[in-house]
């Protein structure tokens, strides 16, 4: 198994949930990773979108992280605009979609898998992240 996935090497065109427009999916380490989550990079052309959907059978949680371009995600009756570095979590069974609202390509890292937790308290970066979140939300 090659430990490196090169950008675009395994990209496939794929229409998501009734969406349309150019949408390319790179499923990183498909068939090789033992993570309990899928890690993908999606590239959507201008005007492309993923259709409204939920993940309830089986229940899956998704995280969208924008790396390039402008996105609009509608989720559970609200609309959110995201740019590079912004992320959105979509809990299992929550209606959501994704659209490219920019003039150029939209690149998004999408991580999805079954809901669950594991003990991260032994990791200093996790503890510091929790402290930062608490301070910012105070």
TrEMBL record:
A Pfam family annotated for this UniProt entry: Cupin_2
Report which superkingdom the organism of origin falls in. Bacteria
Domain Cupin type-2 positions: 41-112
The cross-references to InterPro entries, in alphabetical order and at most eight, read:
Cupin_2, RmlC-like_jellyroll, RmlC_Cupin_sf
List the protein's name. Cupin
